[in-house]
Write a structure and sequence with these properties.
89% of the residues lie in helices and 0% in strands. It is mostly helical. The chain is elongated, with a radius of gyration of 15 Å.
Length: 65
């Protein structure tokens, strides 16, 4: 497995976790606002990581292509 594939796999895993946390934050919004805020904060941190991985993925593709 090369570097591009490993970045893409990691990106997909983080994306699934991000979607799960956003859904969790939405579901908690009516019942427990503190838990909703915590889930949203974690999702924002994951989104930051995803954006950095997208940049790395693009750079690796440019170098490979």
């Amino acid at each position: 497995m090369n570097r591009i594939d490993s970045i893409k796999i990691h990106q997909d895993e983080l994306s699934k976790r991000y979607k799960s946390l956003i859904e969790q934050a939405y579901n908690f919004r009516q019942t427990d606002s503190a838990l909703s805020d915590i889930s949203e904060y974690k999702a924002i941190k994951l989104l930051n990581k995803l954006n950095r991985l997208k940049y790395l993925y693009r750079e690796q593709q440019k170098q490979a292509g």
